[in-house]
Write a structure and sequence with these properties.
Length: 448
């Protein structure tokens, strides 16, 4: 145990690798947006807007590499951690400047841009916070303050992780303003503020863990500073925790719904071709769009029981049995998706039918009747036979069993073949592997 401790302690020890004075000076310098930083930020925002506009991930990442958005937020968290009132105020002021420049630049781009996409998925994805956004923001903030605190700067681009959480929603705010779409604006602004709060919170916690020295102040001012820090921290942490819990619940609910739908795509004569989760009501509900035959009460009851195993109550489930007819409540995306789902189901059904038919063809091909060979074999026994016709059919027994049935017509010049009918019939049953067989004999003169 001592050996493990002696190995791990120097491995995770950070006190020998930190430059408190250098980190403090760097953070103070990088919170300001003046001169080149203003234009660099505007250029980065426009590049990111282009990437979001054309759904290009490499372009978005390229914009993040040059973005200076991390300064004010790290400065705010650092100021809270070291009780530096001046740094907190300057950081908030420059945070407002940074947000204003970003929104103006992205708005102008989307107003003037000739690029109009029908489904800008990368932009739409930045209107609602997810657990992944929060994790990126939080751990990006920790990586950012750790990198700044190092004596020897490495190649860690913590700013990229932070920009990942901040730049796309800022661009989406500009996109919403250009369309005067308040839903986009509110959703992207909410995502941006949540990410900013978690970056600041991560910075504050890291500063406290690394034991950065607090700024010296007078006694009364120090007391006021402590109260101000406590109030600000309360304002940050409480909404952050509430939001994190809500996001986790929504993600877990979405996962359970996805599994439930995947396991029960087909029910009776209908199937689920789409679903929608409504988190605006409490508890959250799911709307299932059904195609095919309407579900019976018994079939719905079975589905309710399966849903309860996933923690979903029956009161949270809404069936839309007429979804294929009533499309007034459905968006264009949902209608297209429904058509795709139905087409996919039809293709699967046709593919299954084709597979069955192919299997039957292979089976019949393997049982192909060698009529020409059979004619020569019969002629070897009865030379007077001039023609043999063999056909396959089916017969149903009294028990309802279906059996193969063979019909054989023999044409001969005399009665030689007919006189050996019993022998020929037994031989043909073995030759054709036929459980049932009917033979007819015709003189060649009649056949002609």
């Amino acid at each position: 145990m001592n050996k493990i401790s002696s190995f791990l302690k120097p491995l995770v020890n950070m006190s020998d690798h930190l430059d408190y004075d250098g980190a403090t000076e760097s953070i103070r310098e990088n919170i300001y947006f003046r001169g080149p930083n203003v234009f660099i930020l505007a250029c980065a925002i426009i590049i990111a807007s282009v990437g979001l506009n054309v759904n290009s991930i490499p372009v978005i990442i390229g914009a993040m590499l040059i973005s200076p958005v991390m300064g004010p937020i790290l400065g705010f968290g650092f100021g809270l951690g070291t009780r530096d009132d001046r740094l907190v105020k300057d950081s908030l002021k420059n945070f407002g400047v940074m947000v204003s420049i970003s929104i103006v630049a992205s708005t102008l781009y989307f107003i003037l841009s000739p690029l109009n996409m029908e489904h800008p998925t990368e932009l739409l994805a930045r209107t609602n916070p997810t657990l992944y956004d929060v994790l990126i923001a939080f751990f990006g903030g920790i990586a950012g303050i750790l990198e700044i605190s190092k004596k020897k700067k490495g190649t860690v681009l913590a700013g990229v992780a932070i920009a990942t959480a901040l730049m796309p929603p800022l661009c989406t705010i500009g996109y919403g303003i250009s369309l005067l779409n308040w839903k986009f604006i509110a959703g992207a602004m909410y995502l941006f503020l949540i990410n900013s709060i978690f970056i600041a919170l991560a910075t504050f916690l890291a500063v406290k863990y690394l034991k950065y020295p607090a700024v010296e102040t007078g006694g009364e001012r120090k007391m006021m500073s402590s109260r101000a820090v406590a109030i600000i921290l309360l304002l940050i942490i409480v909404p952050s925790v509430v939001t994190a819990v809500r996001i986790v619940k929504e993600n877990n609910f979405r996962i359970h719904v996805s599994r439930l739908v995947e396991e029960n795509k087909s029910m009776g004569g209908g199937f689920i071709y789409d679903y929608r989760i409504d988190n605006s009501v409490k508890p959250a509900s799911i709307v299932l769009f059904m195609a095919g035959e309407a579900l019976s009460d018994a079939e719905k009851e079975v589905f309710y029981l399966k849903a309860e195993k996933h923690g979903i109550l029956r009161g949270q489930i809404v069936f839309k049995d007429d979804a294929t007819i009533n499309t007034a409540e459905m968006s264009e995306t949902e209608i297209v998706k429904s058509i795709y789902e139905r087409s996919e189901a039809q293709i699967r059904s046709l593919s299954d039918s084709i597979s069955v038919l192919n299997e039957q063809l292979r089976r019949y091909a393997s049982q192909e009747i060698p009529a020409e060979v059979i004619l020569r074999e019969i002629q070897a026994q009865c030379p007077s036979v001039s023609k043999v016709s063999v056909s396959r059919g089916a017969t149903v027994t009294a028990e309802g069993e279906v059996q193969d049935m063979f019909f054989v017509a023999v044409t001969s010049a005399n009665n030689e073949a007919q006189s050996q009918s019993d022998l020929l019939e037994r031989w043909l049953k073995v030759r054709l592997n036929a459980p049932a067989l009917t033979m007819t004999f015709t003189p060649s003169e009649v056949a002609l």
